[in-house]
């Protein structure tokens, strides 16, 4: 599997056609890798029976037809906040520890239609509230690039999905992205993380965190695989009223894509005080490469400084609303109390939610109080519009640019001990600084690994584009990927680190 760790979807499909590999063999090796890297804690639930059944159906199709589905026989995993019929979906919380959905999320249905094989459900911060994947009831996920006694975080909240792809347990993975929860762990684990335009991919079956910002995201080892996966999952869905209703045109990645006529913007406000020197140098390195191929301009997004505060307020307000469905009556945990309905509600939610979830519920309810509604919630909504207008101005105003280039995170992967020394709110404010504005504006963004830090850990950059610019975004990301030639973490490297 060492060699297969760096195989792309096209490489695997070629091996299928040449009969040097078959889907069952690939799935067996992915499951074997998942078991051999259990200490990384990428998975909450492995699904070997489901994966084997799906791989056998893939083999039957391969024998009867030379045409392959886009993800035929490709291993995938899902963040454990996407509903999967007859497979438990926990959100890494006591509240849903024993919850088994009776239906599939649209994204999982589309993956199965494309021929994918599900190897498991991956770890996350409880109800996706975090930026480190350290607040799961199943324990934290660990970064495979540096796993030892003094280990580093995987990023979050979709850290399990990022670890699964980075360590070779899955070819591609699905996460959710509310304020950077796909791009952040992708950056820290040295893989590609794509957040599509809001509404391009159905949210049906994704257990919601913030309805107005949640977007299913894609993890892959390279840009081509991310594009292929997006082509499988994007498009309108009658079950989700927030999806874009126009038909999705599949994205094409061109090997000879010309960027000479593009103008790439560098937003000055993203150069913040907490950003490490290594990240700044990485940013400058790629900027210098692009200046030889296209135009690069300095731009301003003046409301960036308030964006994280606005995101925090709106996040907590929607969390307070979304978490109200967990009352101990319909599904999920039910506390053993019969004194009153009020006591049932309070005890169930106290036992079912961790401190992070409870604090966001309290904060959201405070902001939504009648006397605070206009002061906090309405003001935050108005500022969100200004943040969105900032992006509109740089993409469509005078001296417009085609894309923006920024860091994804402010440093390489922090040590677990350093990360947990701060509370969840402060860590999210730090880790989400560069990523959450894209969610506020609903625009697409992608994180691309660029180089290794002095600690031999990945450093990544982010591209952002106007709504529905995924084709341009992915083609430019592919160009950067080819220029920097970032190394893949091979299994023997992981073993040598331990």
UniProtKB/TrEMBL annotation:
Q: What class of enzyme is it?
A: ligase
Q: Where in the cell is it found?
A: Mitochondrion
Any GO MF annotation of the entry: ATP binding
| Reaction catalysis annotation | L-glutamyl-tRNA(Gln) + L-glutamine + ATP + H2O = L-glutaminyl-tRNA(Gln) + L-glutamate + ADP + phosphate + H(+)
Its keywords, alphabetically, are: ATP-binding, Ligase, Mitochondrion, Nucleotide-binding, Protein biosynthesis
The protein's Enzyme Commission number? 6.3.5.7
The UniProt record lists the Amidase domain at 27-474
Family annotation (InterPro entries): Amidase (IPR000120), Amidase_dom (IPR023631), AS_sf (IPR036928), GatA (IPR004412)
**Could you describe the subunit structure of this protein?**
Subunit of the heterotrimeric GatCAB amidotransferase (AdT) complex, composed of A, B and C subunits.
**HAMAP family the UniProt entry points to:** GatA
- Give the similarity note: Belongs to the amidase family. GatA subfamily.
Quote the PANTHER family the UniProt record gives. Answer: GLUTAMYL-TRNA(GLN) AMIDOTRANSFERASE SUBUNIT A, MITOCHONDRIAL, TRANSAMIDASE
Q: What is this protein called?
A: Glutamyl-tRNA(Gln) amidotransferase subunit A, mitochondrial
């Amino acid at each position: 599997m060492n060699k297969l760790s760096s195989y792309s979807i096209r490489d695997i499909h070629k091996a299928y056609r040449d009969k040097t590999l078959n889907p069952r063999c690939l799935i067996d090796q992915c499951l074997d890798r998942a078991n051999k890297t259990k200490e990384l804690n990428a998975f909450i639930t492995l699904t070997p029976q489901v994966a084997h059944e799906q791989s056998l159906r893939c083999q039957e199709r391969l024998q009867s037809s030379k045409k392959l589905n886009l993800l035929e026989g490709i291993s995938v995993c899902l963040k454990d906040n996407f509903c999967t019929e007859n497979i438990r979906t926990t959100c890494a919380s006591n509240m849903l520890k024993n919850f088994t959905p009776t239906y599939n999320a649209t994204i999982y249905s589309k993956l199965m239609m494309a021929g994918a094989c599900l190897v498991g459900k991956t770890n996350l911060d409880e109800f996706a509230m975090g930026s480190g994947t350290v607040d799961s009831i199943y324990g934290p996920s660990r970064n495979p690039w540096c796993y030892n006694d003094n280990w580093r975080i995987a990023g979050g909240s979709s850290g399990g999905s990022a670890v699964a792809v980075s360590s070779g347990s899955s070819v591609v993975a699905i996460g959710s992205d509310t304020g950077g929860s796909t791009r952040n762990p992708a950056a820290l684990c040295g893989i590609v993380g794509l957040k599509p335009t809001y509404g391009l991919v159905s949210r049906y079956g994704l257990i919601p965190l913030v309805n107005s910002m949640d977007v299913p995201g894609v993890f892959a080892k390279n840009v081509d695989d991310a594009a292929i996966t997006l082509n499988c999952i994007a498009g309108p869905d009658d079950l989700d009223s927030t999806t874009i209703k126009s038909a999705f045109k599949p994205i094409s990645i061109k090997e000879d894509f010309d960027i000479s006529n593009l103008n790439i913007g560098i937003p000055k406000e993203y150069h913040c005080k907490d950003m490490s020197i290594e990240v700044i140098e990485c940013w400058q390195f790629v900027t210098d490469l692009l200046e030889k191929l296209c135009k690069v301009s300095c731009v301003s997004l003046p409301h960036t400084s308030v964006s994280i505060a606005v995101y925090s307020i709106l996040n907590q307000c929607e969390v307070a609303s979304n978490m109200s469905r967990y009352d101990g009556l319909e599904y999920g945990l039910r506390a053993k109390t019969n004194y009153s309905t009020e006591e049932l509600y309070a005890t169930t939610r106290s036992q079912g939610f961790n401190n992070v979830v409870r604090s966001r519920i309290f904060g959201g309810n405070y902001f939504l109080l009648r006397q605070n509604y206009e002061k906090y919630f309405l003001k935050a909504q108005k500022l969100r519009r200004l943040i969105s207008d900032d992006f509109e101005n740089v993409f469509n105003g005078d001296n417009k640019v085609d894309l923006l280039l920024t860091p994804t995170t402010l440093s390489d992967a922090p040590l677990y001990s350093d990360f947990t020394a701060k509370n969840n709110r402060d860590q999210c404010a730090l880790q989400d600084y560069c990523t959450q504005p894209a969610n506020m504006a609903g625009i697409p963004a992608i994180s691309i690994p660029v180089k290794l830090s002095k600690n031999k850990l990945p450093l990544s950059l982010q591209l952002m584009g106007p709504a529905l610019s995924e084709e341009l975004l992915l083609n430019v990301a592919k160009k950067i990927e080819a220029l920097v030639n970032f190394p893949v973490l091979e299994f023997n490297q992981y073993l040598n680190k331990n």
